[in-house]
Amino acid sequence: MKCTVIGLGRFGYQLAVSLADQGMEVLAIDGNESIIASIRDKVTQAVCLRVSSEESLLTLGIEDMDIVIVAMGEDFAQSILITALLKKQLHVKNVVARAVSNIHENILMLVGADRVVFPEQDLGIKLANNLSFSLIEFFQVTEKFALTEIITPKSFVGKTISELNLRKSKQVSCIGVNKNDEINLIGSDYEIQENDMLLFAGNNDKLADLAKEKAKETKTAKEE
Question: pTM of the full predicted structure?
Answer without folding.
Answer: 0.60
